[in-house]
């Protein structure tokens, strides 16, 4: 229509000129040459439908020094990538899925898979503050939509190798490949990494015990290393889709070195064998709108912990965890013109066979046995788009939860709506309810000693909590986003240090608070100066309040206004330059966690991306994260007799070098999905 209108205008101008020329001289008509008419358009970055933001992420990160999907997600509107942990402004938690499918992976496995998956395979990303019930995910979702190979593409792939220098060096590589023939499509993604991490904490605990205070100082360094094998493979035949996700962590060990008031201690963590995670899933869809699927997950680890003072053995624990989880679902969809009606059922069963044995006996209670968890639900949903601009999806789910300690019924409503009459202004409203479950290990009666003063306790009485959330977004010109949001987490959980009044002991235990409430406003503003400079400015201001009538034997009511700001920049020397630069800035003001106050943090990241070779099949990315090493907080607790301070001095500064070679025009892929990270004994 724009071209057609321009053509009509040009034609009218030509006719007018011709008439005027004839009016001047009826004998001759002088030829007139019009200036060239250029129609310049801007590719929209964000589209809206049924409460969903569809984001052209490949276009946003095309000049960024990012090589994988995990790094790319940090440039989504409203998304914060905090040292590899993905968060969404206005949502308490976010689930990442691929092509609308959920695979129940623990979060560390999912992030490892996203890290090994090339960014080139991205088609688009859908940001949903309220996912339709058919996704089998409650609350906020990031759906990564990937390009599908065709038989004409042949075998395509990418090889990656990288090195990361923090306090210690880590390195790894990966292979991603796709192939399609007739009705078959195959995907393979494999990554192998040798990682070694370092953390540093200084703590000052002014402990009130037996009528007087004792200052317990501690300087602790934590070191861990392992080999990580991550594999994703899938095969699709017509409407059948089979996937396998796995991660095997071998040669895993860690230790903490502690020096302070009570002496010098070494805490060793050695895994008896590889940590195993395996998930296999099958899904089938019929042309009539029926989808059935299921998956099986196994997780197993065995860890020995030994605490020494100097060279003297003090105590230890043997922690074992074996989890078998089954999940099945059935969805049905009916289309009646522009109305879509859907319903479904889902069931999940998990058996956790775990144990803890203390050495010498009697140092802690320990436990052994199998606990079971059942979650069953049924839902109905409705979607529709009106001609006058409103589209919506609404669903209601009934859920039953049961484990060895409790059972309850939950009603979970969801609403997502979009008003979209013109591309200039898009309005979205989302309302959601999310039930958040604790990790399996936290529900056990376990005790893990950090040193003779500090220990981590399990909590069998810990309850899942409900998080209610609402977001109202305004999208201007399909790129500027303003989101007003509110969250209320009923019986939200928190884990914080607590100075026991009964003994000289610092206790870490996850407990339920009364609630956690957040109200805020998030702005996402892209900026540019042609091809030379592209940037995104982010501002998020919110009020956070956390309250507990019973935190062990005290209470608290803590609140604060908090500001987060970021400016992400990319630069190019020319429109087709093979080299691009990036400079990213971020800041967060003092914040809170439970009764604790956290100091402000800031960081500066910089990077360069160089593409070269035939059709730019090769790429080198160099990225320096947190150049000034300031993205670590100080935590202070000074309330109801609790007097504690922790200064985190982690090595968040690192230098990352990545080399990529793509063959046969590769446009890579992956297939993850998660629940929350509920596996593992290190809680």
Topology readout:
Elements: H1 2-24, E1 46-49, E2 52-55, H2 57-60, H3 69-73, E3 79-82, E4 85-88, E5 94-98, H4 107-115, E6 122-128, E7 140-146, E8 156-165, E9 169-181, E10 184-209, E11 212-237, E12 240-260, E13 263-271, E14 275-285, E15 290-309, E16 312-336, E17 339-359, E18 367-385, E19 390-403, E20 407-422, E21 425-436, E22 447-449, E23 454-457, E24 465-476, E25 480-490, E26 493-499, E27 506-512, E28 515-529, E29 533-551, E30 554-572, E31 579-588, E32 591-593, E33 596-598, E34 601-612, E35 618-625, E36 634-639, E37 642-648, E38 654-663
Parallel strand pairs: 5-7, 23-27
Antiparallel strand pairs: 1-2, 2-6, 3-4, 6-7, 8-9, 8-38, 9-10, 10-11, 10-37, 11-12, 12-13, 12-14, 13-15, 14-15, 15-16, 16-17, 17-18, 18-19, 19-20, 20-21, 21-24, 22-23, 24-25, 25-28, 26-27, 28-29, 29-30, 30-31, 31-34, 32-33, 33-36, 34-35, 35-38, 36-37
Report on the structure:
With 683 residues, this protein is mostly beta strands. The protein has four helices and 38 strands. It has a 27-stranded antiparallel β-sheet that branches. It has a five-stranded mixed β-sheet with strand order 1-2-6-7-5, with no helix packed on it. Strands 22-23-27-26 form a four-stranded mixed β-sheet, with no helix packed on it. The protein is globular and about 70 Å long. It starts with a helix and ends in a 20-residue tail after the last strand. Residues 1-41 and 667-677 have low confidence and may be disordered.
């Amino acid at each position: 229509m724009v071209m057609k209108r321009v053509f009509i205008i040009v034609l009218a101008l030509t006719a007018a000129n011709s008439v005027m020329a004839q009016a001047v001289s009826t004998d001759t008509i002088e030829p007139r040459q019009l200036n060239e008419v250029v129609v310049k358009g801007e590719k929209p970055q964000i589209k809206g439908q049924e409460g969903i933001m569809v984001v052209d992420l490949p276009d946003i990160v095309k000049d960024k020094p990012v090589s994988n999907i995990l790094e790319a997600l940090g440039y989504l509107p409203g998304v914060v990538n905090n040292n590899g942990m993905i968060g969404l402004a206005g949502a308490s938690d976010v689930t990442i899925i691929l092509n609308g499918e959920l695979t129940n992976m623990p979060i560390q496995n999912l992030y490892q898979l996203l890290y090994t998956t090339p960014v080139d395979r991205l088609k688009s990303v859908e940001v949903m503050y309220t996912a339709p019930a058919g996704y089998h995910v409650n609350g906020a979702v990031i759906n990564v939509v990937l390009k599908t190979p065709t038989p004409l593409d042949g075998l395509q792939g990418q090889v990656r190798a990288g090195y990361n220098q923090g306090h210690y060096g880590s390195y790894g590589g990966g292979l991603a490949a796709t192939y399609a023939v007739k009705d078959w499509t195959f995907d393979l993604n494999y990554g192998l990494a040798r990682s070694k991490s370092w953390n540093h904490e200084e703590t000052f605990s002014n402990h009130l015990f037996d009528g007087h205070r004792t200052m317990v100082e501690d300087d602790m360094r934590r070191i861990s290393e392992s080999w990580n094998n991550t594999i994703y493979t899938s095969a699709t035949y017509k409407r059948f889709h089979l996937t396998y996700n796995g991660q095997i962590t071998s040669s895993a060990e860690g230790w903490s070195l502690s020096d302070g008031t009570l002496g010098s201690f070494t805490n060793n963590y050695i895994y008896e064998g590889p940590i195993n995670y395996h998930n296999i899933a099958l899904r089938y869809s019929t042309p009539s709108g029926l989808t059935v699927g299921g998956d099986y997950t196994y997780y197993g680890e065995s860890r020995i912990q030994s605490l020494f003072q100097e060279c003297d053995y003090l105590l230890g624990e043997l922690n074992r965890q074996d989890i078998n989880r089954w999940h099945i679902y059935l969805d049905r969809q009916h289309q009646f013109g522009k109305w879509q009606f859907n319903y479904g059922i889902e069931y999940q069963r998990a058996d956790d066979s775990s144990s803890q044995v203390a050495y010498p006996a009697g140092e802690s209670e320990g436990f052994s046995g199998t606990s079971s968890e059942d979650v069953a639900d049924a839902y109905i949903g409705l979607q529709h788009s009106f001609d006058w601009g409103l589209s919506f999806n609404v669903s209601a789910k009934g859920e039953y939860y049961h484990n060895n300690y409790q059972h309850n019924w939950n009603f979970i409503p969801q609403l997502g709506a979009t008003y979209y009459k013109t591309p200039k202004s898009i309005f979205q409203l989302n309302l959601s309810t999310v039930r958040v479950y604790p990790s399996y290990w936290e529900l056990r009666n376990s005790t893990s000693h950090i040193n003779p003063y500090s220990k981590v306790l399990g909590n069998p009485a810990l309850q899942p909590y409900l998080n209610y959330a609402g977001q109202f977004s305004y999208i201007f010109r399909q790129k500027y986003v303003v989101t007003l949001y509110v969250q209320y987490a009923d019986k939200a959980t928190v884990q914080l240090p607590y100075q026991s009044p009964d003994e000289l002991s610092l206790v870490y235990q996850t407990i339920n608070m009364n609630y956690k409430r957040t109200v805020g406003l998030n702005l996402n503003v892209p900026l540019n100066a042609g091809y030379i400079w592209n940037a995104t400015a982010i501002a998020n201001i919110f009020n956070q309040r956390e309250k507990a009538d019973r935190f062990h034997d005290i209470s608290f009511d803590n609140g604060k206004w908090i500001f987060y700001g970021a400016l992400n920049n990319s630069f190019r020397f020319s429109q087709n330059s093979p080299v691009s630069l990036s400079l990213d800035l971020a800041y967060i003001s003092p914040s809170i966690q439970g009764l604790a106050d956290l100091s402000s943090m800031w960081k500066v990241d910089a990077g360069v991306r160089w593409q070269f070779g035939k059709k730019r099949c090769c790429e080198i990315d160099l990225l320096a994260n947190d150049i000034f090493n300031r993205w670590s907080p100080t935590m202070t607790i000074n309330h109801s007799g609790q007097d504690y301070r922790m200064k985190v001095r982690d090595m968040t500064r690192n230098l990352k070098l990545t080399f990529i070679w793509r063959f046969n025009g590769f446009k890579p892929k992956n297939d993850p999905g998660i629940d929350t990270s509920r596996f593992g004994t290190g809680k």
